[in-house]
Write a structure and sequence with these properties.
The complex is a heterodimer of chains A (265) and B (334). Chain A contains 9 helices and 10 strands. Chain A is an alpha/beta fold. Chain A folds into 2 domains: 6-89 and 176-260, 3-Layer(aba) Sandwich (Rossmann fold), CATH 3.40.50; 103-174, no CATH class. In chain A, the strands form 2 sheets. Chain A has a 6-stranded mixed sheet, sandwiched between helices. In chain A, strands 2-1-4-5 form a 4-stranded antiparallel sheet, with helices on one face. Chain A is globular, with a radius of gyration of 19 Å. In chain A, 46% of the residues are buried. Chain B is mainly α and 334 residues long. The termini of chain B are far apart. The longest helix of chain B is centred in the C-terminal third of the chain and has 31 residues, at 303-333. Chain B has 2 domains: 23-301, ABC transporter involved in vitamin B12 uptake, BtuC, CATH 1.10.3470; 308-334. Chain B has a two-stranded antiparallel sheet with strand order 1-2. The mean pLDDT of chain B is 91. The radius of gyration of chain B is 22 Å and the shape is globular. The chains are: A alpha/beta (265), B mainly alpha (334). The A-B interface holds A 60, 62, 82-83, 85-87, 91-92, 94, 98-103, 106-107, 110-112, 114-116, 119-128, 130, 133-134, 137, 169, 173 and B 1-4, 176, 179-180, 182-188, 190-191, 193-195, 197-205, 212.
């Protein structure tokens, strides 16, 4: 296990420091620690029920931890309101698409773009006249080849397209720390390839923490893997090392092989 | 483009505005009073649409802000001054203050609970109006509110003049509301309506935006309330209560929640129906119920959205008939 660096270390993107979480008597996380250097692509791996999503919502601020601290860019954010975390540069996606179903693709992205912009406080000027916001929205539409879908209502898009917008929405505000909760779940092989290629093309100014339970996807993306099982870190290291770790084979691959049928349930 | 207006929609708006302008000279006094009332309730309904249709907050106590402004303006106009600006500003100010206060309580809840708490808060204002007889006239209501003197030499006592005055105020208020729903703030409100959790994760101060929307809605309901008391020369606790709140809610749903101008249409239909039916039948509420059921069955998303769909449906049906007829005659010719 890596040692925790001192708070305020500027080379560190995210520190999870002995975080625990219990629901009533059930222990979901037990003293989980990990340190993600700036710019790293870190994959959080583990079978269903390992506590990945709980850890994710603790980092995102959707739930408070029972114990421990979270630091982002050297700052303690354990009790920080979610919108302040977003202002610090933290953005996340959700395991189940969390979009604005009745709004158009363009409006969805616009909401992501203006979230951290002062322009979003504007009350009497039509949105279409806010040039900076409109240009950034157009840029995202072009980049993601959503141009011809801009007017489409999101609830009428295919699942794959919605999954894509889920990620674009998180990127719209130019985050520094990107939390992706199973971005490829439910996608076809070629869609998955696109996501993997895209994540590879992201600039190094963005630190990425990714939850995945598919070992293959994890392998292609990860520079470093942290494996969770039953709420505890069982392995933490480069992909090759983690793959070879007998404990990982036991807790992860064993379960994975057993469940390979209903993996995406 | 975000917030851009289809040309056809804009043309329709111009047409309606022109019709309303001409109506002031073309119809009789009774109809003009009806139209004035429809405009006032239209503004009231649009203010509620900001909450219901755009922010996703179903209020069943929106009459509280309408009636509070009506009472405040009415009391000052009846007791203190014949001027317009002081009573009007006091009326709108009172409903804004009330919304600032009630918003703190109501916005702790969502959905059905929001409905219940706004209902309770609304009935609270009814209680206050009944209790303070010396000021409000209690259950008898406050009568004898004179038409205001604008101080610009425009006499508002004639029905026609008051109609144009109402039209001007409602037009300006509608324009402001339209700008609000087209603004980044308006887009954010719809985002909150669709998915509060994601808005929150994106970094929006969700509560604050809801609160601003709540207070704005209260304020615009107040503007409608001021017009109402001058129009009617009278206000009773009914204007604050559940029946009025439910009626305006129906106007929004009938016209189309989330369309802004739909509720104006809904108000027009309901006000007209009310007068027409009341003239030959006593059970207006019964008809109101029927209208509600019909709306839910036939035009769940409101008249504003249904009309283009019906138009398209009729057109494609006609086109189908024409195609069949052509095919028949074509075959016949061969």
């Amino acid at each position: 296990m890596t040692t925790s660096p001192a708070p305020g270390d500027t080379e560190v993107g995210l520190v999870v420091d002995r975080v625990s979480k219990s629901f009533g008597g059930i222990r979901a996380l037990h003293e989980v620690s990990m340190t993600v250097p700036k710019g790293q692509r870190r994959v959080l791996l583990g079978p269903n029920g390992a506590g990945k999503s709980v850890l994710f919502s603790i980092i995102g601020g959707q739930q408070p931890p029972t114990g421990g601290r979270i630091l982002a860019f050297g700052r303690d954010i354990t009790r920080l309101p979610r919108r302040r975390r977003a202002a610090l540069g933290l953005a996340r996606t959700f395991q189940l698409n969390s979009l604005f179903p009745r709004l158009s693709v363009e409006e969805n992205l616009f909401l992501g773009v203006q979230a951290l912009d002062r322009g979003s406080r504007s009350l009497l000027r039509p949105a279409s006249t806010h040039r900076r916001l409109v240009e950034r929205t157009d840029e995202l539409l072009r980049e993601w080849r959503l141009d011809d879908r801009r007017g489409a209502v999101v609830e009428e898009l295919s699942y794959g397209e919605q999954r894509q917008i889920e990620m674009v929405l998180a990127l719209a505000g130019r985050p520094r720390l990107l939390l992706l909760d199973e971005p490829t779940s439910g996608l076809t092989k070629s869609e998955t390839d696109e996501v993997v290629a895209f994540l590879g093309s992201l600039g190094r100014e963005i630190t990425v923490l990714l939850v995945e339970h598919d070992m293959d996807v994890a392998d292609r993306l990860a520079e470093w893997i942290t494996v969770l099982s039953l709420g505890e870190v069982v392995a933490d290291g480069p992909p090759g090392v983690v793959r070879a770790d007998p404990r990982v084979r036991e807790v992860y691959l064993g379960v994975s092989a057993e469940r390979s049928e209903g993996r995406d349930a | 483009m975000i917030g851009s207006v289809p040309l056809r929609r804009a043309a329709l708006g111009v047409l309606v505005a022109a019709a309303l302008l001409v109506a002031g000279r073309a119809v009789d006094d009774f109809q003009l009073r009806l139209l004035t009332e429809a405009l006032i309730f239209g503004l009231f309904a649009m203010s509620l649409d900001l909450l219901l249709g755009y922010t996703g907050l179903p209020s069943l106590g929106h009459a509280a802000y309408f009636g509070t402004a009506a009472y405040t303006t009415g009391v000052i106009a009846a007791e203190a001054t014949s001027g317009f600006w002081l009573p009007a500003a006091a009326g709108v100010g009172a409903s804004v203050l009330l919304a600032l206060l009630f918003g703190l309580v109501a916005l702790r809840t969502r959905g059905v609970y929001f409905l219940m708490i706004t209902l309770a808060l609304g009935q609270l204002t009814v209680g206050l109006a009944l209790r303070n007889r010396s000021l409000t006239g209690g259950a008898d209501g406050l009568a004898g509110v004179p038409r205001p003197d604008l101080g610009v030499g425009w006499n508002l006592w004639p029905t026609q003049n008051f109609y144009y005055f109402t039209l001007a105020v409602v037009a300006v208020a509608a324009l402001v509301l339209w700008l609000v729903v087209r603004s980044p703030f308006g887009v954010a409100l719809r985002g909150i309506r669709d998915n509060e959790a994601r808005m929150d994760a994106l970094g929006y101060h969700v509560w604050l935006r809801r609160y601003v929307a709540f207070v704005l809605a209260g304020g615009f309901a107040g503007v409608a309330g001021v017009l109402f008391v001058y129009h009617n020369a009278f206000v009773s606790p009914d204007a604050l209560g559940l029946a009025t709140s439910a009626e305006v809610l129906l106007m929004v749903i009938l016209g189309g929640a989330g369309t802004l101008f739909g509720p104006l249409l809904g108000a027009g239909v309901l006000v007209t129906l009310n007068y027409t039916i009341s003239s030959f039948a006593e059970r207006w509420v019964l008809f109101l119920g029927a209208v509600y059921v019909l709306t839910v069955l036939v035009a769940r998303r409101g008249l504003w959205r249904a009309v283009p769909v019906w138009a398209r449906g009729t057109r494609s049906m006609l086109a189908g008939v024409v195609t069949i007829a052509r095919a028949r005659t074509g075959r016949g010719a061969r």
